[in-house]
Specification:
The chain has 117 residues and is mainly α. The protein is built from four helices and no strands. The chain has two domains: 56 residues, 3-methyladenine DNA Glycosylase II, Chain A, domain 3 (Orthogonal Bundle); 52 residues, no CATH class.
Length: 117
């Protein structure tokens, strides 16, 4: 798996800020797929010909999103309903372990009926 340090080796390293951040920050955003190599204006200069393509090769294709249940962290209140079937290990959540239930005024995110969402 590629690291942000390896990605940074293919960036100008000038920290010019034309993309709005330092090269190290840009490398981290490339790694998390929040930005693309084309978002660095300096890489479009002739001195950096081929760097954009090299970064695309280094990063590889974007991973497909994980199938299955998605938990909205802004709506989840730790009630524990989903812990038994959650692939994200919400059993490690302190609020869920303490059995904090939903508050009546909160919107229900999903219901579990007979083990099915």
């Amino acid at each position: 798996m590629v690291t942000a340090a390896e990605i940074r080796d293919f960036l100008p390293g000038t920290d010019c800020g034309q993309c709005g951040q330092t090269c190290a920050e840009f490398a981290a955003r490339l790694l998390s797929r929040e930005q693309a190599p084309e978002d660095c204006p300096v890489l479009h200069e002739p001195d950096y010909a081929g760097f954009i393509e090299a970064l695309h090769e280094l990063l590889g294709p974007a991973a497909a999103p994980a199938p299955g249940m998605q938990v909205d962290s802004e709506k989840c209140n730790g009630c524990g309903i989903c812990v038994a079937m959650c692939e994200y290990h919400l059993g490690n959540c302190t609020e869920a372990r303490l059995g904090k239930g939903p508050r009546p005024r909160d919107q229900i995110v999903f219901h579990v009926v007979n083990g099915t969402v």
